[in-house]
Write a structure and sequence with these properties.
two-stranded antiparallel ribbon; 2 strands; 4 helices
């Protein structure tokens, strides 16, 4: 079992208990988890692989996975920005799969 698969197995029950599911696109999920693990090695924390991190944990606090934008994204679109976390309806195909716009304010990238 790869490190990403182990991470998935650890996180799945915790996140599902909170109402968040991993996308049923397993290949995409494992790619994203690999990227999270790479960011942990690079920065010391698992920041969102779909956003630019500063390397400053305090500045990146809002994008440490699961980021603070996950809940509103999943509530509104059925998926987070990365499509890592989704709703049950999204996985079942009952929610249109649309582009999830970036919620992170531009000033956070400075």
């Amino acid at each position: 079992m790869t490190e990403a698969e182990q991470l998935l197995e650890r996180l799945k029950p915790i996140q599902e208990a909170k109402g968040f599911f991993f996308s049923n696109d397993r290949e995409r999920v494992l790619e994203l988890l690999d990227a999270l693990l790479l960011n942990r090695k690079r920065y010391g924390y698992m920041c969102c692989p779909c956003r630019l991190a500063s390397g400053d944990r305090e500045k990146d606090r809002d994008i440490i996975c699961p980021c603070e934008y996950r809940a509103p994204d999943v509530a509104e679109y059925g998926s987070c920005y990365c499509n890592l976390y989704v709703s049950g309806d999204w996985n079942a195909g009952r929610v249109a799969r649309v582009y999830v716009p970036e919620r992170r304010p531009p000033e956070k990238y400075l």
